[in-house]
Model the fold of this input.
Amino acid sequence: MKHEILPSIESPDDLDKLSLPKLELLASEMRDVLCSLVACRSAHFASNLGVVELCIALHSVFDFRKDRLIWDTGHQIYPHKLLTGRFPQFGTMRTKGGLMGYPNPTESEYDLFMTGHAGSSISTALGLASGDDLLRPEEDRQSVAVIGDGAFPSGIVFEALNNARRQCDKLLVVLNDNQMSICPRVGGVADYLDRLRINPMYTGLKDEVAKILSKVPLLGDPTERFLVQLKEAAKAGLSGGMMFEDMGFRYIGPIDGHNIGLLRKYLKMVRRIEGPVLLHVVTEKGHGFKPAEADPVLFHAPPQFERREDQVVAMKKSSSRAYTHVASEAIAEQMRGNPKVTVLTAAMCQGNKLEKVREEFPDRFFDTGICESHAVAFAAGQAKVGMRPIVDIYSTFLQRSYDQIFQEAALQNLPVTFMLDRGGLAGPDGPTHHGVFDFGYLRVFPNMVVMAPGDAQDLPAMLDFALKHEGPCAVRYPKATAVEIDRKVAPIELGRSEVLHWGTDGCLIACGALLPRCLEAARRLSDQGLDIGIINARFLKPLDTEVILRAIQECDFVVTVEEAALAGGFGSAVVEAAADAGIDASRVRRLGIPDHYVEHGERDELLADLGLDASSIETTCRQLAGVSIESR
Done:
């Protein structure tokens, strides 16, 4: 498709000179660019296709250099980037050093927050509006939050709605209703929005009656009070949005989210309304590309594919088995053998590869939607009455339930098993999704057991151990191809590591799936005459102090290796144990994620940058052994 308009859009100001037909043509060009991107690499897709017209309308009505715009979650940011001067760099999306797949303030003044988790947009937009009211009361600024119906049930959303009425007069919440989260949405809020969308009163009758009601004269008291009550009662009968009205929002909609002219009309109207407004916009996830419309779950973030016009002719699918597959298969096996085992996820059935589990065990599968805090507290309730719940949530998203991990699970010492997918670097998803803080945020809790498999063979055994342990357990594993180390696998025992080789010159202690890289580094060092031991730590908590402290005392040096933040992580636990035992730890070197946020890029690229690939681990050991790098 030839792009006539999009290359000329250097900023949203350029939209002002375009007619409605030209804006619609621009929308088609933007969709074509989105399709071309996914022909190059995996990226968020269907959600971006669904907001093209909404994005054009927002930028043509508001000036977001002055007004404020927050895209909730942020994975639907691509059209916004195309309209804000980033079209020339668009081909670099999600590559190391290129555009980020989420909002990024270092890229543009139009991106106010780096976001990647759902539900916070209304709170931050409300804070922006409140701050502007206090600092710049004379300026007319609108604060806009665009939030999807999948994110809307998040608890923080209702905390924000509860406070909005009394906090500001210039807040617009655009509810982007596409009947989807990543997977089909769940719960009572979804049912409520369905009723709003299919309400026959929105076919025109509502507007006509509203016009009549608006002309009802207000006489005197008590007649005035009676007519006001009558008017409000009539509104309640005609409007399904009374929940929002009762919370202090002016509810408007639902309207067609793919009609640019209609969207602009309504956005211009709500600008003039004083007080918080909720504009209900109905869109279609994957709109404009038939395969994505038909299967928005697959096309949420599809693999690279080739297309011919409006059809997918080939899709590149990885044949490798990932740790996520190993985990889902292990969960299914446990559920087959034990009717007390349940599994809970937070709108990530597809991401956690739990579709088959859901189909086989519908009564013991629970999708809470994007409500991680609820998921953990819900699991604690199940555990209290004798069930064995598995909470299967990405490491970065489990942070959202931190208080429930503490209060409802660890404090009560309940047997809740946490499966932390994407533990470590999440690759092109970047800093909002890297699961690098879980070691630090879990090991502080008494009663908590924290495990990390060294390879794919450890993972099912750790899950089996966790489901038999009388207390909370966490198992974290990476977004990576599953690797199996050829060895006689030692059984999983509480707080016991696995010694693969006891070396005389030094020791590598790996906590997690970087163990194969440590083995490769040790093999290279062996070729150079260095005998380096290898320990598969398995447990972050409780730590195998017997073996680890022996290694510190007997080996010339010890290197701890983890795909997690060094602050409060495995290496810190090792040094703390040495200090508590009065052992000199000056020859312990910690390798892991330093104290800064790691940008997006392929996992292997990032590991190399951070000194966590086999070559870098080898170099660290050579330096500690006193071998000159130049002598290779």
Observations:
- Residues 200-206, 208-213, 216-238, 628-632 have pLDDT under 50 and may be disordered.
- The radius of gyration is 27 Å.
